[in-house]
Automatic annotation (TrEMBL):
It comes from the Bacteria. Residues 33-57, 115-149 are annotated as: Disordered. Keywords: Isomerase, Rotamase, Signal. Its EC number is 5.2.1.8. It is an enzyme of class 5 (isomerase). GO terms for molecular function: peptidyl-prolyl cis-trans isomerase activity. SUPFAM superfamilies: FKBP-like. InterPro entries: PPIase_dom_sf, PPIase_FKBP_dom. The keyword Cytoplasm does not apply. This is peptidylprolyl isomerase. Residues 276-368 form the PPIase FKBP-type domain. It catalyses: [protein]-peptidylproline (omega=180) = [protein]-peptidylproline (omega=0). Belongs to the FKBP-type PPIase family. It comes from Streptomyces aidingensis.
Amino acid sequence: MISIKRPTRPTRTARRLAAALAVPVLLLTAACGSDSGNSGNSADAEETQESESNAPWPLATVTGAVGEEPAIEVPDGAETSSETVVTVLEEGDGPTVAENDYLRVSLLARGLKEDEEDLVNTWSPRTAEDQQTEGSEGSEGSGETAGQEDAEPVYAALQMGKEDLLPLAVTDPLVGKPEGSRVVIQGAASELIGAVAENVGFQPGDSVVFVYDIVTVIDPLSMAEGEQAAAGPGMPEVQAGEPEAASITVPEGEEPPAEIQQQVLIEGDGAEVKANQQLIVQYTGVKWSDGEKFDSSWDHGGASKFPIGAGGVIAGWDETLVGKHVGDRVLLVIPPEKAYGVTEEGAEPAHELADQTLVFVVDILDAI
């Protein structure tokens, strides 16, 4: 029998959530279908499809200021292309996007047929009522409810070099572009979004455009900054001044607390964390029982991204990190029932950390 060991990170599940982009992504959930006609596998049909896919397609014109919803038009006599085209319409002056960086972006993606619906539009996110009508899953990330006309802007959270719902073909070109830029990526739907293209109604030869505003670039090796407070009575001691896993010292000889304990060690001045956002964090976790580290984001190359307040992480994180602020460093002591559970008598542990009180130090780098 193959034994599947759950991850030691504080996720309940390894499956990708549609909320991972912090917006409803029609691209991977819609099932528009396509009228493909004869679906035979003859060489002639394959050759025809390949020929249509490589046929020149008209390039759209994108207008509008950075920070505002772009307008996309295909003028008469538009220039054509048979290869992907990347254009920087406005170049920002912020830090340059590097491999593995996290990005906060505004995004509009659309096919170039007449009256084509948006695939993704963070400037005009669907309401909860829309999502229920469409029966889509994973809408948690939008944080939108019906009737929120004055809602705060919605953004997408991306990590470079990781296929995180959006294919690499439509995110890799952002590497090397400065924060504050507006970047347009146009290409054949089959090339940019792969096999998904047919599932959402694209035909061979159809093209698609992605317009990004790069709002924030987040270094995956960054940390919370500021003077760190001393740990409170009965709380573990923390040393976390270097870009490495925090050193956490559990009080010697003390029994673990029965309830969640928390303390903000560094107070950030960023936005308040809200339920259903994507949290970008550095974290280190140790066991109260012996003080041994069981996991850290630093062991995985830097910051990690998790949905918060949506049941995608252990309950102790959901209950404590919602309401904190970007820039905070938070010390958490989480009993088993709010972590990986308590093992019933006579049963095998469902998780290697079941029955353990866990101690975390979490730096909140962004909430998107």
